[in-house]
Amino acid sequence: MSVFETVAVALWAMLPAYVPNNAAVLAGGGSPIDAGRTWNGRRLLGDGKTWRGTAIGTLAGAALALGLNAVAPEVSAAVGVDLPTFPLAAALALAAGAMLGDIAASFLKRRTGRERGASFPGLDQLDFVVFALLLAFLAAPSWFGEVFTVPVLVVVFVATPVLHLVTNGIAYALGLKNEPW
Questions:
Q1: Is 181 a member of any domain?
Q2: Sign of CA dihedral 141, 142, 144, 150
Q3: Looking at the chain, which terminus has fewer C-beta neighbours within 10 angstroms, N or C?
Q4: Rg (CA), the chain
Q5: How far is CA 32 from CA 81, 153, 168, in A?
Q6: Domain limits at 63?
Q7: What is the pLDDT of residue 122?
Q8: Quick check: is 148 in a domain?
Q9: Phi, psi of 140, deg, nearest 5
C-alpha cells in the first residue's frame, strides 16, 4: 500500500470516530451524565458531558459510517484506493468509543484538578482515538485487523493530533468552542 493509500484508508476509517465529539458540541446541553455528583469535592465529569450530546454524537458517527458505506465504491474508484466499508458493529463501536474516550478524559481532568475546557496535551488529542480503536477491535476484530494495519495505525496516531488542533481552532474561531484546543 502506498503512502497515499495508507493515509486515505486511515482518515476514511477514522471518520466515524472523528465526527461524534463535534456533533456533541453542536447538540450540546441537556442533563449532565454525572448529574452534578462529586468525588473528593470535584465534579465527576462536569456540565460539558451530557446524555444528549453523547447520544447524538454516537448516532452521528454511526450514521456517517453507514453513509460512507453507500458512497465507498464511487469514492474508491475516484481516488484509486480500496476504501473500507463499516460493519454496523464497527460503526457503532468507533462512534461510541470516541464519546467514551472523551468522557474518560473528562474524568481524568477532574481528578487532576483541571477545570472544564482546560488543556491536557496528549490526552485531549488522543483520548477518543484510543477508546474508539479499542471498542472497534472488541466489536469487530476481523474487520479491525484488516483495516487497521500497523501503517494505518501510525498514520492515525500522527495525523489525529494535527487534525484535532486544526478543527478545534476552526471551531474556536467560529465561536463554537470557548478554547482553541
A1: no
A2: positive
A3: N
A4: 17
A5: 42, 33, 22
A6: 3-173
A7: 66
A8: yes
A9: -145, 70
Total domains present in the chain: 1
The whole-angstrom separation of Cα 175 and Cα 177 is: 6
* Length reported for the chain: 181
| 105 or 4: which leads in pLDDT | 4
Other C-beta atoms lying within 10 Å of the C-beta of residue 46? 20
SS3 28: coil
In this structure, is residue 31 part of a structural domain?
yes
User: What residues does 42 pair with on adjacent strands?
Assistant: 39
- The single-letter DSSP state of residue 118 is -
Residue 67 banded pLDDT, cuts 50, 70, 90: very high
Whether residue 35 contacts residue 109, with contact meaning beta carbons closer than 8 Å, is answered with no
Which of 16, 22, 21, 160 shows the shortest CA–CA distance to 93? 16
Confidence of residue 111 (pLDDT cuts 50, 70, 90): confident
**Measured distance CA(83)–CA(69) in Å, rounded:** 9
Q: Centre a 10 Å sphere on the Cβ of residue 85 and count the other Cβ atoms it contains.
A: 19
Whose CA is closest to 1, among 150, 141, 162?
150
**Residue 179 resides in a domain:** no
